[in-house]
From TrEMBL:
<dbReference type="Pfam" id="PF03692">
    <property type="entry name" value="CxxCxxCC"/>
</dbReference>
<dbReference type="InterPro" id="IPR005358">
    <property type="entry name" value="Puta_zinc/iron-chelating_dom"/>
</dbReference>
<protein>
    <recommendedName>
        <fullName>YkgJ family cysteine cluster protein</fullName>
    </recommendedName>
</protein>
Length: 241
């Protein structure tokens, strides 16, 4: 695995052109509202991340051992921007009513059940919140994880940390080891993805859209990062009040 990782880092990291093509095509796509256009762009750019990973896997003849129900990495810190958290919420908001109610009920139960762990997380610094060892000691699952089935309630829009962390060996190592050496991170794709998302948002703003029509506060929502549980907790509190 070490040799494959070295090969990927030396010669298989993409140049970002696939994201450029995706953005060009997004300009030609229309949705009923600007907020829906942004959500569509977010989903499409996440798909491009998947496509880039699939290309590298084909070139290296790798196949991930990650499977539905294997949720060890869902107890790692998922640190993202408020922008991405708002787009995940926007995705949930357009789900069929039954699915939306299921997610809402799940989140309410989550924040009740893990109140003490969330309090500890709020007291940590950013560096501590991003530290896998400290975070895993909280035994705090991702808010979008259905712990009964081991499935993600927002799988289609799972963010970059979830999407780019893969295991290519025995999946049991993720449960047995705190920081398994057999896993591989495609985090380098996150830079291309975020650049493309920024480019598309800026184009929408130049076309006359604003924060209100997009449902975000730009660029403020993209400048800081927090653990996903805290971002969703803030959203839930604001929705109540």
């Amino acid at each position: 695995m070490a040799a494959i990782c070295e090969r990927i880092n030396e010669s298989l990291i993409p140049d970002g052109s696939r994201f450029d093509v995706a953005v060009d095509r997004l300009y030609e796509h229309e949705e009923p509202t600007a907020a829906e256009q942004l959500l569509h762009a977010y989903q499409r750019l996440l798909e491009v991340v998947d496509e880039e990973i699939a290309t590298i896997e084909q070139q290296t003849q790798l196949a991930p051992s990650c499977r539905k129900g294997c949720a060890h990495c869902c107890y790692y810190p998922i640190v993202i921007t408020p922008l991405e958290a708002k787009l995940i919420i926007a995705y949930v908001d357009v789900l069929p009513e039954r699915d939306k109610e299921r997610v809402a009920g799940h989140l309410q139960q989550y924040f009740r059940q893990y109140r003490s762990q969330l309090r500890e997380l709020r007291e940590q610094s950013y560096e501590e919140a991003d530290d896998k060892r400290l975070y895993k000691s909280l035994h705090l699952p991702c808010p979008m994880l259905d712990t009964q089935s081991g499935s993600c309630l927002a799988y289609a829009v799972r963010p970059i940390p979830c999407r780019t962390y893969l295991n290519y060996s025995d999946p049991r190592v993720c449960g047995d080891e705190l920081l398994p050496k057999e896993s591989f991170s495609y985090a380098f794709l996150g830079e291309y993805y975020m650049q493309a998302l920024h480019e598309y948002i800026q184009a929408l703003l130049m076309d006359g859209e604003d924060d209100e029509t997009l449902g975000i506060v730009y660029p403020d929502d993209s400048l800081e990062m927090e653990p996903l549980p805290l971002l969703l907790e803030k959203w839930l509190l604001s929705a109540r009040g």
